[in-house]
Design brief:
single chain, alpha/beta, Rossmann fold, six-stranded parallel β-sheet, 20 helices
């Protein structure tokens, strides 16, 4: 990477940030990724700052009721974690001027993060920044006005000069509308302002499910104030009708990226009919090593020592937490399979239980132990339904299946460090990246996963983990994936763990090698700077990478 003083100054916009469980302003992988990026930017002394929202109640705490059904409670943060910048900016929402306070957070070894807050004393607009992803369409648009339009104004008020605006998902695209408005106010035409803004903006897309890409009615956008001085014609040129936030992100940017090689292909296929969009390259996600690698495992790995003893230390820490939280004493000598992530139907957390005639004898004997954790969106009834099915299994097999409530970063660290096997079985290709598996591998956990997201690039079957499943779609995919899962589990995973410990230990080191060297946030941010953030310094190598990444699709 070039000398840092010559690198472009980047403002990273995201709706959520996972820096610590102490500051619960994140919902899942999107926020954890954003937090890891800020930490790595700090470590590497990169000129990158974050822009987000201070959520009064955080996302949600989620527990299981007596019926086995998830229910939600608001969370709170410690205000001592925040620094008041003294800056208050204003935006227009529903025709009313809204004051927005700007806070700063850098207490977690992270690059500066500026958080926007409408819950000022004496203001009745605290509803806007009350809860992440809460409320209806008006709430969401108001929040996106704060993040995007307010974020640009906050950076100016703070005195920051920005070269690159990085929009992490479509929630931030109204920042592009503000940049265009400012240029038009200085005399540029709309097209001139759009072209100039595109040179400043890059965009990351995460959602490979078409229905998950947010869209809004133009009448509602105009009523809420999202037009921000632009006309309906201008807004339709940017985001179509209805206004699609992902389409807008790709039209406001000069380059966009998916978060794994497979996801890059999926995104190009999804959006191939969108005219005038940015080329979509692939930059695979990475994780912040200091945050996610267990200290004992890291020391042993650095000293080229065996990993089994520090792994057992991490496993016992996890089992102690399981005993405390769930009242279940699992056996540290028996294989422990982990599954923990945001609860969504396509991730199929209950998948391994679809053939009870196969899995029941393994659970009853104790040779297989399983621990699950995860949260469903408060309004996602389908996600809660699949969690309830997992909870049902804990009651059927109370000594071998455990569900840990209220999944957060603390549990994430314990689970990815302490499990022997990390199970991942989404419907391919709907897992854009899947960084929990990277964290498990970083700690010597062996992935047992379909070839989706990062694992397509990282898997060496029987060397650093295992793959199962194939390229089928729909019902055929589920049927084949299930048969393949049981085959690999019974014929390879279990025998290796119990009968060939030397091979298992060798595979653990190979897993750490893979994650540490190929899937770190350090590598990811280097690619961001070399590929996304410096278009004026594009090399012949980059041209070849872009050509290869976009081959076969409209670019």
């Amino acid at each position: 990477m070039p000398d840092n003083k010559y690198l472009p100054r980047v403002a990273y916009f995201c709706m959520e940030y996972g820096l610590s469980e102490d500051l619960p302003i994140y919902a899942g992988g999107l926020g954890i990724l954003a937090g890891d990026i800020l930490k790595e930017a700090h470590d590497a002394e990169l000129p990158l700052i974050g822009v987000g929202i201070l959520w009064k109640e955080g996302y949600t705490s989620q527990f299981i009721d007596e019926r086995g059904w998830p229910y939600d409670k608001p969370t709170a943060y410690d205000p001592d974690l925040l620094q008041d910048t003294g800056i208050i900016i204003h935006v227009i929402v529903r025709g009313e001027e809204i004051p927005v306070r700007v806070w700063r957070v850098d207490a977690y070894g992270n690059a500066p993060l500026y958080l926007l807050d409408t819950a000022l004393p004496g203001s009745d607009h605290g509803w806007i920044t009350n809860r992440l992803y809460g409320g209806g369409d008006q709430d969401r648009i108001a929040q996106e006005i704060i993040l995007g339009i307010g974020g640009v104004r906050a950076l100016e008020a703070l005195g920051h000069t920005i070269d690159v605006y990085h929009f992490n998902e479509g929630h931030a695209v109204l920042a592009g509308i503000e940049l265009i408005r400012q240029k038009m106010a200085k005399g540029k035409t709309f097209q001139q302002a759009l072209d100039a803004t595109r040179r400043e903006v890059v965009f990351t897309t995460h959602t490979p499910v078409m229905a998950g890409n947010e869209a809004h009615d133009h009448g509602l956008l105009q009523y809420m104030g999202a037009y921000n001085g632009l006309s309906r014609e201008h807004m339709e040129i940017i985001g179509d009708d209805p206004f699609n936030m992902t389409v807008a992100g790709m039209r406001l940017a000069h380059i966009a990226n998916g978060v794994s090689k497979l996801h890059g292909m999926t995104a190009r296929s999804m959006w191939c009919d969108i005219d005038d969009r940015a080329p979509i390259v692939a930059i695979t996600n990475g994780v912040h090593i200091d945050t996610w690698m267990h200290p004992s495992i890291r020391r042993a790995y650095a000293a080229n020592l065996g990993l089994w003893s520090p792994h057992l230390e991490a496993k016992r820490e996890l089992l102690q937490t399981i005993a405390k939280r769930a009242g279940v004493q699992l056996n540290p000598q028996f294989m422990l399979i982990g599954f923990a992530r945001r609860a969504a139907v396509y991730k199929r957390p209950e998948f391994i239980f679809h053939r009870m005639d196969i899995i029941e004898p393994l659970l009853a004997s104790g040779r297989v132990q399983m621990v699950f954790s995860g949260k469903a969106h408060p309004r996602d009834e389908s996600g809660k339904q699949v969690l309830s099915k997992v909870v049902e299994m804990t009651r059927r097999f109370p000594q071998s299946v455990v569900f840990l409530e209220n999944y957060d970063m603390e549990l994430g660290r314990l689970l990815t460090a302490g499990c022997d096997v990390w199970l991942n079985n989404p419907q391919r290709p709907l897992e854009a990246s899947g960084t929990s598996g990277i964290k498990a591998a970083l700690n010597g956990g062996l992935n047992l996963s379909v070839l989706d997201g990062w694992w397509l690039e990282g898997c060496k079957h029987g060397v650093n983990g295992w793959q199962f499943g194939g390229g089928y779609e729909g019902e055929l995919q589920s049927k084949y994936d299930l048969a393949s899962l049981y085959e690999v589990l019974l014929e390879e995973v279990i025998p290796t763990y119990y009968e060939h410990p030397h091979q298992w230990h060798k595979m653990m080191r190979a897993a750490v090698d893979t994650a540490y060297h190929r899937f770190s946030a350090e590598r990811m941010l280097a690619e961001y700077y070399n590929i996304l953030y410096q278009p004026s310094r594009t090399s012949k190598l980059l041209e070849e990478q872009v050509l290869e990444a976009t081959m076969g699709y409209r670019a």
